[in-house]
Amino acid sequence: MDQLIEGPSHYIHIEQNEFSYRKHKKQKEEDIAICNCKFDANDPDSACGERCLNVLTSTECTPGFCPCGINCKNQKFQKCAYAKLKLFKTEGRGWGLLADENIKAGRFIIEYCGEVISWKEARRRSQAYETQGVKDAFIISLNGYESIDATKKGSLARFINHSCQPNCETRKWTVLGELRVGIFSKQDIPVGTELAYDYNFEWYGGAKVRCLCGAACCPGFLGAKSRGFLEDTYLWEDNDDRYSVENIPLYDSEEDEPTSKLLKTEHSKYESNTNGKIEYPVAMINGLASEAHLESTVLEIEPLDSCPMENMVDDAKVEVGKEKKLYLQGTQQTFAQNNAMISRIRSNTACRNYHIEPGPVTKRRSQHHPNGKSKNLAKKHVDAKLVAQLLGPKEAREEVLNYEEVKNQANTELDSLYNEIRPAIEEHERDSQDSVATSVAEKWIEACCFKLKAEFDLYSSIIKHATCTPRRPREMAQIPEVENDDELKYLTNQ
Ligand SMILES: C[S@@+](CC[C@H](N)C(=O)[O-])C[C@H]1O[C@@H](n2cnc3c(N)ncnc32)[C@H](O)[C@@H]1O
């Protein structure tokens, strides 16, 4: 019978995943993987130990089919062969789980159980939880289209906290045809030690939670390395100083104020300000990066004599180099993730993560560096129509306008393609074990390349004409409304 556990949040204790939106899969006999182990009483590893073919493929043996019968050691999820664990109240991070015995490296500790729900339902629930003020996140991704929600029903694994330097990790196993998530030790864990794994927390919106794991490598917030968080927070770095331009809403209640020894050690690294408050490494510094710095800027087109073409080409190379690094860093980050704990899934996730917002260009833009930090980068916006109006030859005007049209089409195509494949991409972000279908990836890459080429064609055409083509007198040009008069003055040389 399920047990109602009293704690900071009430939940129903379960020791097997629950399936509400679909039926539990029934394994067909022809799908059962049978190993070729042979039980040998003198060799403890013979009955489905490390050499077992099923173990090697993270698949549990099926009772009644394993050649080792009752001696099979590869049915740990099925037998709930958990380590001895103890619930305890942490200081600052709610409840946590302790090892109540010495645990050897690589051991299965406990299954992360909860309700298996669809990706759509996970999104709906995470929004609802946010509205209800549920501050702890318990939804983790299971496969490309499903998640496990342990918010209302779960095993003790739901109490394991996050650490940036964890002693445990999650692994997925196939058990009787269903995928399941287990917590495994990464190292020997002495009795009395708190268990923790890296949530690979994907921040999609909502409050930002200070990470109180105390690890030296901790970036300061849960999900601080996820793309959504970086882009939203706008961290950038100048030498050793890190800044954030956002007023960061925090879950940081008084009762959650950190006071543990572990945390005190960590705090001592950061200076106290005059109010005695701890300055966290990621601090909001007002005024350092005002909106003015972040406003879209106009592409500056220098007259030929003051801006040699080689310099422009060099600048362009630098920009391309930065973008390439940004792209590579982004992909590596995405592909490095395992099971991700999901923060709040917002419907605008897709656009935020991939810079393909419909509508006007976002005012702020972050540039990711290979070291995982971000740098602020103003978006250069060019008014192609205005440039075209000012060009003398008709062909030049038409060329610029045509390229602009192609660029707009490419953007629209990328937007609609993104909406189509968003579920697959978002699932993939959280779960590197399941690949995005090749056809989807190819379509996406093709559309991205098309967009990049369209932008390149437009901007190179503008640069070419702005530097080499005679301009029309201002009176002849039908100049559209221009917000920034400097741009106009510049283009008309006035
Ligand atoms: C899966 S629950 C872990 C159990 C939770 N501590 C509880 O009391 O129910 C995840 C939540 O615990 C908190 N948490 C886990 N690790 C944390 C950390 N390193 N720093 C701060 N809060 C943490 C966050 O609120 C997070 O959303």
From TrEMBL:
Keywords linked to the UniProt accession: Chromosome, Methyltransferase, Nucleus, S-adenosyl-L-methionine, Transferase
Chain residue ranges for the region called Disordered: 358-377
Residues annotated as domain SET: 83-200
Subcellular location field: Chromosome; Nucleus
Family matches, as PROSITE patterns: AWS, POST_SET, SET
Residue ranges of domain AWS in the record: 30-81
One GO term describing the cellular component: nucleus
Chief location: nucleus
Transmembrane parts of this sequence: none
One function term, GO molecular function aspect: histone methyltransferase activity
Residue ranges of domain Post-SET in the record: 207-223
The keyword Transferase is annotated on this UniProt entry: yes
Biological processes, Gene Ontology terms: methylation
InterPro entries linked to this entry: AWS_dom, Post-SET_dom, SET2_Histone-Lys_MeTrsfase, SET_dom, SET_dom_sf
Biased composition, class Basic residues, residue ranges: 362-377
Protein name: Histone-lysine N-methyltransferase ASHH1
Lineage, opening ranks: Eukaryota, Viridiplantae, Streptophyta, Embryophyta, Tracheophyta
